[in-house]
Amino acid sequence: MIKNVSRYLKLSKIGEGTYGIVYKAKDVQTERIVALKKVRINPEIEGTPSTSIREIALLKELKHPNIIHLLDVINTSKKLVLIFEYCESDLKKKEDEFLGKNEKFPALLAKKYFKQVLEGISYLHKKKIIHRDLKPQNLLLTENDEIKICDFGLARGTGVPIQTYTNEVVTLWYRPPDILLGSKMYDNSIDLWSVACIFGEMMNGKSLFQGKNDAEQCEEIFKIIGTPDENEFPWLKESPEWNAGITGEGFKKCEKKKFKDAFPDIGDDNVYDILEKMLVFDPEKRASAESILEHPYFKEN
């Protein structure tokens, strides 16, 4: 482990978040361009953030073409610096690029990205790891259009299919309805909902479900997939979010629509079939990444 951050020359700031600042930098020994993430440490409050400890532990175990590669860790009592492979952009910026030109996201490019995300997620799930925060901003892009899944601060390893976790995960528009309604019992199906939303967003030109809060997000989802039945999912009766709904009197009953009718002209029958298989309320019935990779959609030219 290298203790001297001076090996890396900062070139420009890429971004800033709750836990630190990310820079584009150059390894002066190898001339390689890297991403340098300087983590904020406040020893008087909590020391090294738990999200960073979790991210380091997980990424050290992960080796896959579609998972961001952690190159180095510089850890002292006063600072923590993570060195990652450098990526030119992310999927959100790519989407905005086409949106800014009033162009539709190219279908073949969307398929290429979708396949890579599924391959990365399939690998994670086989390793019994749930990402829990998949969104376009966390899908980095190299100059060769390779997807790199990043930001594992909310990720969790799981030794059994279902465990109890916090439901404060996944950015709103990519969060499954069971989590929105307060369920803390979930498995890797949480990631599959997010991946399907991202795929649908690329094909549709905008997010499929755009609520402003948890209740509104649920309502937008139920308008398409139908309102769940308490008799089929008894745990709903104990959910304050379910009982309140958007008006305080529960959610109105909506019948399921076909995605083809709800979102016309976003793809062929295979695209709609994938969305139908992945965007379902029951987590146990959501198609796995592995099964979707075998879908006829990926056999088409």
Describe the overall structure:
The protein has about 300 residues and is of the alpha+beta class. It has two domains: about 80 residues, Phosphorylase Kinase, domain 1 (2-Layer Sandwich), CATH 3.30.200.20; about 210 residues, Transferase(Phosphotransferase), domain 1 (Orthogonal Bundle). About 30% of the residues lie in helices and about 15% in strands. The protein is built from ten helices and twelve strands. It has a five-stranded antiparallel β-sheet, covered by helices on one side. A three-stranded antiparallel β-sheet has the order 6-8-9. Strand 1 and strand 2 form a beta hairpin. The longest helix is centred in the middle third of the chain and has 20 residues. It is globular. About 35% of the residues are buried.
Tell how many strands the DSSP assignment holds.
Answer: 12
CATH topology-level name of the largest domain: Transferase(Phosphotransferase), domain 1
Second CATH tier, the architecture of the largest domain: Orthogonal Bundle
Give the N-to-C terminal Cα separation. 46 Å
Helical content stands at 25-40%
* Name of the CATH first level of the largest domain: Mainly Alpha
Proportion of residues in extended strands: 15-25%
